[in-house]
Amino acid sequence: MTSQPVESTPITSAADINLSDHAFWLRPPAEREHAFRLLRELDKPAFFADPEVPYMSVKGLGYHALVRHADILEASRNPEVFASGQGGATSIIDMPAEFAEYFGSMINMDDPRHARLRRIVSRAFTPKMIKQFEDDVEVAAASIVDDLLATGSGCDFVTEVAARLPLKIICDMMGIQESDYGFVFDRSNIILGASDPEYVADAESIGAALLTAGMELQELVQRLAADRVENPTNDLTSSLVNANIDGERLTAQELGSFFILLVVAGNETTRNAISYGMRLLTLNPDQKRSWLEDVDGRAPGAVEEIVRLASPVNYMRRKVTRDHEMNGNLYREGEKVVLYYWSANRDENVFDDSLRFDIARNPNPHVGFGGPGPHFCLGAHLARREITVMFRELLRRVPQIEAGEPERLFSSFINGTKHMECTF
Ligand code: HEM
């Protein structure tokens, strides 16, 4: 199996599209754009059989592909009907029970369990802690750009620039020491990039690799937690293990799976947004010039536009809890729907000239951080901050930087870039 684009038959109509065929996700970006446009033009969402997943033996009955912005908004607003907890939100096929130990955190739960966890975690993010990490983002981004300049001419932008900032911030936040950054980075690559042979060479061992990576991250946080019970500091792990949040405390399993969610969700997504943004700026010199004219003033619009087009999280899944009509279509109890955020962010009914990168786009109601509902991204504020600060440093200190051709991650779930040379 290769992660590079392969020759494939042309897509001429929606009937040629199968989102469950792994080969679909190897198609070049322009073909993917074309395919989702055809799906958005259909009268009702296309229905696909479940994908073949070697480590998941029980297949479900298939899923409706929600590709329009209006459907995704509506489904997100109705979590009682479109549930995240019944078999999970992060996998099209129901998550096997043994995975829940490591990957069963709030993203894969419904209220009231979801609300309880989110409440505990949100209260642990105190204003003081958030302020401290905001300051750390500035220092970390400056030091990454120092290192970039020290290369003299360029490097792999993904591993040496984009990946380093979110990794450092999330690890510092939890209290993980610098010598463990590489360990966390490798495990989060396996968890979100398992379908790519660069991270797991043999498709048959994906299931085992995922469980091992989850177990290793859980062991790391449990060691840390044991220490913080005795020696609390001002990090998030200390807040979470000490029952200072209205007497509510996470169990060891809840802490472990929340930590895995945080490192995985906080790392890959922001890294991919920064890399994708760098490529967009290279391909759109007019937009880069415009941003350079007012680096701070145009940052908020530019960052939203990067997240819209990057859409690092391609989809999330929901299960229908009761028969329900939505935008003229019927969804039956027990069926699954997949919310393609990536497609909604290109919906021509909502975004004029939707494939154009326009840092002044206004309004920009993208769903890159999820739709309006209980699962809206917990880290959106932090991610926006990281992307803003990273580009501020790059544009001010290396304005001539350009990105080469991206080497894309082979994944249907994450719209990712593994490597991309940059030069200046
Ligand atoms: C550009 C960067 C990011 C993108 C595109 C992104 C995207 C998303 C999306 C689409 C969801 C919604 C899941 C759903 O609909 O079920 C989500 C949830 C979540 N994100 Fe992010 N995220 C980013 C950065 C972060 C960061 C930096 C963190 C951690 C600090 C984080 C932590 C979370 C958590 C914990 C959830 C689950 C929330 C819940 O279920 O209540 N994310 N994210």
UniProtKB/TrEMBL annotation:
GO molecular function terms here?
cholest-4-en-3-one 26-monooxygenase activity; heme binding; iron ion binding; steroid hydroxylase activity
CDD domains named among the record's database cross-references:
CYP142-like (cd11033)
Mention one GO biological process in which this protein takes part, according to its record: cholesterol catabolic process
InterPro entries this protein is in?
Cyt_P450, Cyt_P450_B, Cyt_P450_sf
The record's annotation in SUPFAM superfamilies points to: Cytochrome P450 (SSF48264)
Q: Which UniProt keywords apply?
A: Heme, Iron, Metal-binding, Monooxygenase, Oxidoreductase
Q: Does the keyword Metal-binding apply?
A: yes
Q: Which domain of life is it from?
A: Bacteria
The UniProt entry's sequence similarity note says:
Belongs to the cytochrome P450 family.
Q: What is this protein called?
A: Linalool 8-monooxygenase
Q: Which organism is it from?
A: Planotetraspora kaengkrachanensis
